[in-house]
Each structure stands twice: as C-alpha cells, then as structure tokens.
Write a structure and sequence with these properties.
The chain is mainly alpha-helical. The chain has helices at residues 2-14, 22-33, 39-52, 66-69, 106-120, and strands spanning 20-21, 55-58, 61-64. Helices cover 42% and strands 7% of the residues. Strands 1-3-2 form a three-stranded antiparallel sheet. The chain is flat.
Length: 139
C-alpha cells in the first residue's frame, strides 16, 4: 500500500521518541510530498500497518515496530553458473622484465630526526618551597 509507505517514511523523518500523531504525519506528507491523503484512506493504511506488525500504536500516536526499523534484507536471486570456458592454447612466456629498485628515502628521515631531539631537551623543573603550617593552641 502506497499510503503505508508514506506513513513509514514520515515516522522515520519525524524521529519522535513517543511516536508521531496523525496530524503530524498528515502535515509532514503535505509539506514534503505535496500530497493530501483523505481521512478514511489514512485510517485504513494505519489499521493495515497495525495488523501487519509494521506500526505500533502508542495512545494516539504511531511508532515503527522494531522489525520495521531494521533495514530490509535484499533478496538475492540465485546466481547462474557461468558457462564453461573453452580451453585456449597456453600462452608463450615473455622474457622476464628487469625490476627497478625503488629510491631510498633515508635523506628525509635524517632531516626530521634532529627536530625531535631539539624538542626533547627541557630544563629541569625547580622545586617549590612548601609553606609551613601555623600551630594553633587548643583552648
């Protein structure tokens, strides 16, 4: 039912924790989809949604059921076996290509190392003198 699909979409878009009311669903469909759904058609769609288990009624609002919130599983068509390929004559091996040696990047590593050493040098922290407590006599 097309109306039920619109209702599901509107409830998902409204994201109301306690469910979406009938006026809120109608308002969303009118503003987003530019359609006006008649009262008796909407009532029938909501009723069929409740019977199918897609919707759950909470007081005067409607929520999507836990099963409806899950993404629908895609039906995979049984894969057809590929037609057996005809064997072709074995290809002749070409002469092995010479491997190129990648250039070393040691120069860039050496440049970054001194920066780290300079940052690691810190002055030793000076100790703060602790304040002495005043002794109070009990009376």
């Amino acid at each position: 039912m097309a109306t039920l699909e619109l209702v599901k979409e509107s409830i998902l878009a409204l994201k109301d924790r306690t469910g979406s009311s009938l006026p809120a669903i109608n308002k969303w469909i009118e503003s987003e989809k530019k359609k006006v759904i008649k009262k008796h058609v909407m009532k029938a769609a909501l009723k069929s949604g409740l019977e199918k288990g897609v919707l759950v009624q909470v007081k005067a609002s409607y929520k999507l059921s836990a099963e409806a919130k899950k993404p629908p599983k895609k039906k995979t068509a049984p894969k057809k076996k590929a037609a057996p390929k005809k064997k072709t004559a074995p290809k002749k091996k070409t002469a092995p290509k010479k491997k190129t040696v990648p250039k070393k990047k040691s120069a860039s590593k050496k440049k970054s190392a001194p920066k780290k050493k300079a940052a690691s040098k810190k002055k030793p922290a000076t100790k703060k003198k602790s304040a002495t407590k005043k002794k109070t006599s009990k009376k």
